[in-house]
Amino acid sequence: MDFNNFKELVFNEAKDKFEDMEIFRTEEKTVEIHVFKGEVDKYSIAESSGVSFRGLKDSKLGYSYSEILDEQAAKMLGEEALDNAKYIDSTDLSPIFPPSDEYMINNQIENHINEKSMEEKIKLVKALEEKAISLDERVPQVSMCLYEEHQISKQVYNTKGVDMQEHGGGAVLYLGVMAKDGDDTKTGSAMRMFRDFNEVNIDEIAKEAVDEAISLLHATPIKSKDYTSIISGVVFADVLQAFFPIFSGDNAHKGLSLLVGKTGEMIASDAFTLIEDPLYEKGFAVSTFDDEGNATIYKKIVEKGKLNTLLYNGKAALKEGVSPTGNGFRESYKSPIVTKATNVYLKMGEKSLQELIESIDEGFLVTNVAGLHSGINPVSGDFSMQAQGFLLENGKKIKGVNGVTIAGNFFKLFKDIEEVGNDLKFGFPGGSHFGSPSIKVKKLSVSGD
Amino acid sequence: MLSKITVENVLNAALCRGGDFAEIYVEDKLVGNIKLVGGNIENNMTGRDYGVGIRIFDKLNAIYAYTNDSSEENLIKVAKSAAQALEGKGTARVLNFIKSDLTNYNPIVKGLFDTAKKEKVDLLKRAYRAAKDYDPVISQVSATYLEEEQKIFIANTDGLWVDDKRVRTRFSVSSIANRNGEMQEGYYAPGASMGFEFYDNINVEEVGKEASRIAKEMIFSEYAPSGTMPVIIDNEFGGVLFHEACGHALEAAFVSKGTSAFTGKMGQLVASPLVTAIDDGTIPNAWGTTNIDDEGTPTRRNILIENGILKSYLVDKLNGRRMNTASTGSSRRQSYKFAPTSRMNNTFIDSGSMTKEEIISTTEKALYAKKLGGGSVNPATGDFNFAVMEGYLVENGKIVKPLRGATLIGNGIEVLGLIDAVGNNLSHGQGMCGASSGSIPANVGQPTLRVSKLTVGGRKGDE
Asked: Which of A111, A204, A327, B268 is most buried (CB neighbours < 10 A)?
């Protein structure tokens, strides 16, 4: 069934059941091309969509969703949401909002990925693989060489007058390579996100991945102790993402964030300014409204170390008596509203990575971490992660480091940031998109030999 | 779910440009999810996933497409557009489907979606109460009830025609202990391929207390030391060690491309002779058990490593072609949105002969990891990491004090060789395993065991 008809049908079926209703929908087209040894070993095309429903009954909110749009589903959405609402405990305010007073206008970001044909895209991935294995005889093969593109549209409608629609998308090239020398195997990778093929230079991507793998060959652990350290931008972007739940006003309200009551206080060094920029042109989470239809807002979450604001979805804002900050997002149409952000990045400083390296007598440059999903705890702020990188001596990279862990507490690390570089890099885009320049920290506990 | 003629037409459309194999996978899944935070039901979601995946092989090339629209017209359109990636010419075949009979390893007594929501909400509230009342140091408790009923249908051009229903439920509790401005979390989340009778088998109050016990132990603990030392890993979820350190690297997706540390090692000694490791998709009602894999091959018990010798990989159809090996019934996917690939079901290290007490009492100094969190691995290098959720210091054969914040890192094959004691208390824990074909339920398991040397990443310098 056509979505507009389906939407009408759902609202009609459910109108006597609820005080307020909302429908959220995403529609997605994706293409994925993997190349291995000159052949397309995986080619995937997909079109999918899903609809999520929220209904407010006696000030209680019930959720339901469906991927199938037929009459049975239209009925089921209202009935299930009503039944689910019954069991919700307490909450006396409606998080289904009327439209915001003002929305930003997104007129600068255009998607050009359809300007190349599928044949040309396949050729590009094959060329990237070929380039990667031509660079160094110690790199005999790739572990993964792929292209992915997404086009997504998002719609929110509610009975308070919200009627919003937005399109987005982009493409990713990813290359993973293996370097072998004797018994030693190391991996390296490089990734680019883009909306225009003119921005893509496959020689550069191949070189970056190969250089990383080669430079880590015969890497060894270093002595266990505290090192003055540089954490590369891509790594710190991932770390910020993993710890981001601490900025959720909802988590703070529930006693799940140590930032509760810290608004207006210094929580980081003055080198630290964290910005949410919903229309950041290189970001891949560009959005002018959140999944509840509230306007997204440009904001400095932390400014020169001072916590300006936590982030609020509709329900959390009502509980705290503040305005929503445009941070009510879902993991997908299958998930309830949680607190998330659009494009978030740490503001750049003055120095290049090279200058940061030159400022260190003895230290550790962290270029890769593993175990982010398990080795960190956003509640306590504790982290302990497997790390790779380089030992620094007298302002130079001395040797590759592997088989160590870095550990500490995130809240303390914030305060230990001495300098922020000028090399802003973004991680892999999910629902949100996180970026950071390289950062220099006073000390980081490294566990190795 | 679809008529024979529709399936035949779609599979023939998929082979319209050549290709030697086509498969259709239909999924219709009901999902329920209830979340409690701080004693209140916070979210309550019901949903229905529905979609169709079409896969084409042309020798070693694989094409995958999926859609939510299962009308014959649309499926033929999707199959043909997927086939555009090939350049050959196909001829229509007459397909003789033979319906497969299944062995049912997961008998269901009480349907999850036939059970009133009130009963599920009561479980959450009971668990909350037990967890919150465990100790005054517990400041917050969240609990989640998850249920799903996944109907699948698979047919392919080899004549396979099979359908199955998978019923699963999981119950998780997370407790937070708060003391002097610090917070520590405890978590416990049992699950099974069972109906609502699962909750006759487990006591949700005990689940809540266990989460709170861990949080309390950890809030009163010190930071773990750093450096290399022996590590004793307890049974149940400790099996995530083998899962990360070796299980992933035994998946044909990596082995067949030479991107696994186990490539070319079949028949060789890859572990301590004390180690026998098994992946068994047939354990009755276990969290990772399915009657068939997601290509329709019956699951089975695969002995991966026997007394230290590598005996089998985990093989799916596509990578099996690359390796000239038959499927081991190990091809899995999260949903129709993913092409399936080789994955684990219920993976474990088999019981040895020592008691847990003997292992601890014969250890001079070690980190005892009683509960592990999740982890990850780089299959190409074998380098793995995982988090210790509940740790203790062992000295002179005794557990001395609790330790927090440790991560264990090492290398898969190396660590397998360093296992120097295996206990007799095998048990299984439940996890969600994420990889290229999505997030799937998998059991990990082992008896208590000791690794003679691992790198412990803690916060405190070695004393």
From this structure: A327
